[in-house]
Amino acid sequence: MSRLVFQTVLAVLVASPAIAGTVNDPACHASSAHPYPVVLVHGRSGHYTDMHSISDALLGAGFCVFGRDYGLYAGQTGLDHLTVSGGQLRDYIEEVLATTGATKVDAIGYSEGTGVIQDFILGKHGAEAVHRVVSFDGLQHPYAHAGAAGVADSDLFLPNLLVSARKVDPTITAQQVITNAIDLYAGAGGQIGDLDRGVAESPFASDLFDPVYWTGLQGSLSEPDGVYLRVATNGHSLPTHDRGTGVCYTNLVSLGDTLVGPSAGFEDPASGVDNIVLQSSADHGTVIDDAGGIAKMLDALNADCGATVTTGGGDAGTGDDDGSDDNGLPDAGGLFQHAGCNAAGRAAWAPIVLALALVRRRRR
């Protein structure tokens, strides 16, 4: 190599920023600056590599980053039972701790991935192994959402559909309730996004509707019996044990996500829980690439566990006296009646629940 070429290459190397590490680098070890490796937990039918914007930011900031797919069922990831996926995450976190020499991990959950993290923490005594959870439009509670987060949310509470259907037919399964609902909705000319029959019949969908699963995980359901639909509100009617002892949570929900709103993505207000509405048009598929959300994630990971990163947006069922939440959004609790929590709301959905069970009976 000539002297001129060598000097040119050297100049380029000196001028270039340091090259970040890679995901799943076995040589990456816990440090005083970043004592907790970060584990990525992807969404339904996805892969940890989908979270590349997040991993790039973490690697650039000097974190050790690890990820592995979970829940493989019928050729797709994330469709096995949440308790199976939670067990796979437990085993993987044990490997990460052994590899890095760390005592705990930070976990980043996206959509279903948050539910898998919580299955590990709440269902498998995993709190001692997790320092902080950062959730992007995550599954903290089993609500189906349609609306604008923090403004005029409408939420279908899934487990109570199954509770009521089983009062009509004790043997009906969650998958049968879901597929019957799809058939009824399609018969009326409706479309249900990317919820195809394969997903609807999966073990994951079964857990999503299952009151027994959620009661076992969180100690109780977050809506009283007979409440199926909550209109123009968010949060939970009843408190649950939705937080692991000693674990801090930063829950991010995008204003532009019409699939997961605060009722599903937020936890009950508590010390060490930050519920934040992202002022973003990012939808459910793009929230993991949202620059504002990634910045909030980095702030959370660099903060002491238990410190408030920012005042959370979105009503968690404790509306302020001024009728707005901490982000200046209208407080649904201060503006609207919780339509799903009264007799009229229950009566409106009773025929649908009965139909779901009766359709199955006719098919026997």
Outline:
This protein has helices at residues 3-15, 52-60, 82-100, 112-123, 158-168, 174-187, 197-200, 203-209, 211-218, 262-265, 291-302, 332-335, 343-363, and strands spanning 38-41, 65-67, 105-110, 130-136, 143-146, 154-157, 229-231, 248-254, 273-278. The chain is of the alpha/beta class. It is globular, with a radius of gyration of 22 Å.
Topology:
Elements: H1 3-15, E1 38-41, H2 52-60, E2 65-67, H3 82-100, E3 105-110, H4 112-123, E4 130-136, E5 143-146, E6 154-157, H5 158-168, H6 174-187, H7 197-200, H8 203-209, H9 211-218, E7 229-231, E8 248-254, H10 262-265, E9 273-278, H11 291-302, H12 332-335, H13 343-363
Parallel strand pairs: 1-2, 1-3, 3-4, 4-8, 8-9
Antiparallel strand pairs: 5-6, 6-7
Outline the low-pLDDT stretches.
3-19, 188-194, 309-348, 356-364
Q: How helical, in percent, are the residues?
A: 25-40%
The chain-level mean pLDDT equals 79
Distance between the termini: 80 Å
Strand content: 5-15%
What is the helix/strand order? HEHEHEHEEEHHHHHEEHEHHH
Per DSSP, the total helix count is: 13
**What value does the Rg take, in angstroms?**
22 Å
CATH superfamily of the largest domain: Alpha/Beta hydrolase fold, catalytic domain
* CATH level-1 class of the largest domain: Alpha Beta
The name CATH uses for the topology of the largest domain is Rossmann fold
**Number of DSSP strands?**
9
Structural account:
The chain has 364 residues and is α/β, with parallel strands linked by helices. It folds into two domains: 31-142 and 238-329, 3-Layer(aba) Sandwich (Rossmann fold), CATH 3.40.50.1820; 154-231 and 341-363, no CATH class. The protein has 13 helices and nine strands. The strands form two sheets. The protein has a six-stranded parallel sheet, sandwiched between helices. A three-stranded antiparallel sheet has the order 5-6-7. Strand 5 (143-146) and strand 6 (154-157) form a beta hairpin.
